[in-house]
Amino acid sequence: KAGVTQTPRYLIKTRGQQVTLSCSPISGHRSVSWYQQTPGQGLQFLFEYFSETQRNKGNFPGRFSGRQFSNSRSEMNVSTLELGDSALYLCASRRDSNNSPLHFGNGTRLTVT
Amino acid sequence: GDSVTQMEGPVTLSEEAFLTINCTYTATGYPSLFWYVQYPGEGLQLLLKATKADDKGSNKGFEATYRKETTSFHLEKGSVQVSDSAVYFCALFLYGGATNKLIFGTGTLLAVQP
Q1: Could you tell me where the beta strands, DSSP code E, fall in chain A?
Q2: CA pair distance A93, B114, nearest whole angstrom
Q3: What is the DSSP string of B36-80?
Q4: Residue A30: its chain B contacts at CB < 8 A?
Q5: pLDDT, tens digit (0-9, with 9 covering 90-100), for B1-22
Q6: Over the stretch B82-108, which tens digit does the pLDDT of each residue have?
Q7: In this structure, what DSSP letter does residue A97 have?
C-alpha cells in the first residue's frame, strides 16, 4: 500500500512569491492535515481537511491556505512568502475514525531567499 | 491548554544501552498518545501508540505505557542500536470535530555510538 506522497521534495523561492505544495494521501484516507516543522517552533499544526472542507485550523496567517479535492488529494498554498516561511512542510493522512493514527509523508523542504 | 513535554536532548548512548525518553502531557479530555520517529531527511514515522489508560504500545523493541495517574508516556528500549539514532517525538491527539490535531513535544535527539 503506497504511503503519503508529497511533491515536490524541495523548493527554493524568493520573498514575495507564492508556492503550492501537493499531497496524495494513503488510499482510503479522507482526512488530510498539514504541519510546519522549523528548528525554532518545532511541529505546528496548519489545518485539516475532510471531504473537501476545512475542518480545523491552526494559528497561522491567512497567507497560508489549502484545499482538498474529491479524490482526497490536498494542496497547500502560501502567498507573499517571507523568509520565516522556510520550513519542512509535512502532510499527514488518516482514516476518519477514533484512534486512527496520522501517517506522514516525507515532506516538502521550502527555502525562501 | 493541551501540551506535551519531553526531555531535552541530545541523548547519547552506547550500543546495547537501555533507553528512556520521558514524556508528560496535559490534556482536557482523554487523548490518545503516540511516539513518532524522524530519521534525517525524512518525515515522521509512527513508532507506537496507546489509546487509553494502562495501554502499552510496542514496536521494534520500543515500549511505552499510558499512565493516566502520572500523565506520562515514557519511551523505553532495552538495548539500543546505532540504527535507532533519530529524533523522537511524543504527541497527543484529541479526537473529535474541531480538536482533530496532533500536539507534539519538542523532540529528543538520540545518538547511539558503536
Answers
A1: 5-7, 10-13, 19-24, 31-38, 42-50, 53-57, 64-68, 74-78, 87-94, 103-104, 108-112
A2: 36
A3: EEE-TTS-EEEEEEE-STT-EEEETTEEEE-BTTTTB--EEESS-
A4: none
A5: 889 999 988 999 999 999 999 9
A6: 999 999 999 999 876 556 788 999 999
A7: S
Q: What is the mean pLDDT of residues B74-87?
A: 97
- For residues A15-21, average pLDDT: 98
**Cα–Cα distance, B49 to B39 (Å, whole number):** 18
User: Minimal Cα–Cα distance from B44 to chain A, Å?
Assistant: 6
User: How far away is chain B from the Cα of A45, in angstroms, using its nearest Cα?
Assistant: 7
Q: Does the beta carbon of B51 lie under 8 angstroms from any beta carbon of chain A?
A: yes
Best CA proximity match to B83, nearest among B64, B62, B58: B62
Cβ contact B46–A101 (<8 Å): yes
> Which chain A residues in 59-98 lie under 8 Å from chain B, judged by CB atoms?
90, 92, 98
Contacts of A71 (CB under 8 A, 6+ apart): none
